[in-house]
Specification:
81% helix
Length: 98
């Protein structure tokens, strides 16, 4: 459930970044950050099983989505980098949970 929501929110953000619509990007970035934050909370409670040991990778992913991404989404100069990082994030989700 959390994983599917993260992937869906990430895809919505990629779509908004591709369209280069500031308001849509802000809305999608906020949704993505909240979805990842919700998943992090569930992960820390032991509700999400992962294949990786320790919290280093999930914690780094959480930090990106909740701290770094909002700043990137606010800067049109960073949108291309944000899209690349979100795609990487979605690929990492597959590595962490599959």
């Amino acid at each position: 459930m959390y994983i599917e929501r993260m992937v869906e929110a990430g895809q919505q953000l990629l779509d908004a970044l591709s369209a280069k619509e500031y308001a849509a990007i802000q809305e999608a970035a906020n949704l993505f950050s909240k979805t990842v934050d919700d998943a992090w909370t569930a992960y820390t409670r032991g509700e999400i099983d992962t294949k990786v040991r320790g919290q280093a990778l999930p914690k780094t992913m959480h930090h990106f989505a909740t701290a770094e991404l909002p700043a990137m989404a606010s800067d049109p100069q960073q949108w291309q980098n944000a899209a690349r990082q979100v795609r990487l994030f979605l690929n990492m989700v597959r590595v962490v949970v599959e």
